[in-house]
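dumping this here before i forget
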Amino acid sequence: MSTRSCLALVLLATAIAGCGSQAHSDAPAQSSVQAAFKDSPAPLAALHAQANQLLGGGATAFKARLRALRGYPVIVNMWASWCEPCQSEFPVYQRIAVQYGRRVAFLAVDVQDTNSNAASFLRHFPVTYPSYTDPHGRIAGSVGSDAQYMPQTWYFNSRGSMLYDKDGPYLSVNDFKRDIAFYLHVK
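structure:
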C-alpha cells in the first residue's frame, strides 16, 4: 500500500471516529415543550417536572418508578456521558420524547458515570425526563437486561413487562418511531 493510500485511510478513520463526538443538541424550544406537554396525565407530568434531573435511589427507586407508571408504556434509555454512541443518539431522544411524551413515559439510567460529568452532559443535551444514576451498573440486571452494550433502549408495556432490549444507538428519528409503533403500538 502506498504512503498516499495509508494517509487517506488514516484521515478517513479519523473522520469516522470523530463523528460520534460531533453530535449537537436538538432540544426543542421550551415553548414547544410546554405546548406539547400541556394537560399531560399526572404520572407523565411528574416525569416532565423532573426533566433533566439526576435521581438517586438505585434499582429500588427505579423499579418503584416503573410501578408508578403502570398504565403507560415506558421507554428507558441507558447512557453515559463518556459514551460516544450515546452522544450521537441523544438528539434523537430529545425530539422523540417531546413528540410522544403525552402517551409514553420516558426515563433514563446514567451508568458508570460521575454525577458531575452526567450533569454537564445533560446541560449540553437537555431532555424532558429524569435519569437515575447507576454508578455500579445494577439497574439493568434488576429489570432483566443483560446490558452488554451502550447505549441501550428498554421498552416496557403498560403492565410493566419488558418487551424489547435494544443494543446500540438510535441515529434516526424514523427508526425510533418504527420501533415505538412496533413494540408499543403507539403511532
